[in-house]
Structures are given as structure tokens and as C-alpha cells.
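Onboarding guide, step 5: your first structure request.
Type a short instruction followed by the sequence, for example:

Predict the 3D structure of this protein.
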Amino acid sequence: MTADTRSGLAGYAGKPAVFKRVLIKLSGQALQGEDRHSIDPAKIHAISEQIGMAAGRGVEIAIVVGAGNIFRGVAGSAHGMDRATGDYMGMIATVLNALALQDGMEKMGLETRVLSAIHMQEVAEPYIRRRAMRHLEKKRIVIFAAGTGNPYFTTDTASALRALEINAEAILMAKRKYDGVYDSDPETNPDAVFLPEVTHLEAIERGLKVMDTTALSLCMDNNLPLYVFNMTEAANIHRVLSGERAGTVVSSPAKR
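The system replies with C-alpha cells like these:
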């Protein structure tokens, strides 16, 4: 992080956050370097720095990280591999990413715990809801690995499920390339329109690339908002935590 960036974030240092507890969803590609190495130490350092500054504001932080930089179960299935086998391989890949993140954050002095939905007791604690809650209460950063522990469910669904289980107030969808949600894929449509606000139901009905349908339905049914923003701009996470506008807000009208 450059001196100019640090200077720009200085105003947020003592500013109280509007959230007490959040879950951050990171894609596996966020850990990938420009040279396509699966895990780039520089990316790990940059992400760890941003999360450390957010935690320094008193926010309790949980993380779910994907595995697109290493393996995708759906992609494996498309090439003839059994879907369940591919998904289990993807779950194991998320553990690799979680351990890399843990290493990067602990090097910065951040107390971190990896909790895996698949038992790997030599490298991670088993996922137990009460244990996760206790770690968060002690201001430890918790990384949830191995998705839900079941095939046919994505890390998006794992994010929604874990966020609800730990009583997170919001999911922060940290994107590495785009600054929020668009009405179509900006990768293929240069005329795609940015959407500053959208409801969960609209996202489902319009097929917007926010989360998969299962995850969006979980969030909608439980009125859990999503904040989708570009994480390459370090101030964005602080804007969201301060209640300021950054990226797209996905929410549902309050029920009366």
C-alpha cells in the first residue's frame, strides 16, 4: 500500500463502523497474480493489509474464499469429471487458499483461525458454530474453508449460510475487477449499465451475476444485505464499513 493510499485512509482510522460483524466473500481469483500464478504473495499481502485495517476499527470479520484460482468443480464436471468429485476437490482447494490468507495475516500480527467444513485437524479447526462465534468475540479473524462441506453447493452459498449462522449484519462481496453489479456481463458487453442498488429478487429474476440463486434466496429470505464493491481500491471497504456509498447494495425492502 502506497503512502498516498495510507494518507487517503487516515480519515477512517478513528471513525466508528456501522457494522459490528461482517462476512467478507473473496473470490479465488483475488489471490491470483497477473502472471497467473495461483497464489500471489503480493495479493495476499494487499488483502491482509486491507482486512487488518478494517479489523482495527473494531469490526468482527469472517471470511469465505473461493477456489477459482486453483480448481472449479463445475469446470471439472464439464470435462467429464464426476460433479461431486470435482466439488470435493474444489473444497480442498479453498483450504489451500484459506491457509495462504492465514499465513499472510498472521505475518501482520493478526490473530487468525481457519475453520474447515471438512475435517483436516492437522491444518485447520473443524467448523463448529459456537467455536466460530467465540473466536469472533475474541476479535480473531475467522476464515471458513471447504464451503458447506457438501457437493453441489458453491462458496457463494457457503458465504450466505455462514453469515447467517454467525449473525453477521452484512456480506461484503469483494471483487477484484468490477466496481459492483451491472445489468449484463461487462466482460462481454461494453455497454453494460452499472446498478447502484438492486433487490435480491430483482437479482434472481434478472439473472444478475451477484451470487448463485440458492445463496441469493437465503439472503433474501433472511433480509441479509450484500455490498458488492471493487477491492482493488483500498478505501472501498472502509466506505462500506462507514455506511458510505461504494459499489452496489443488494437488499430487500423491510417487511412490515
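Each response can be followed by summary notes, for example: The two ends are 45 Å apart (CA to CA).
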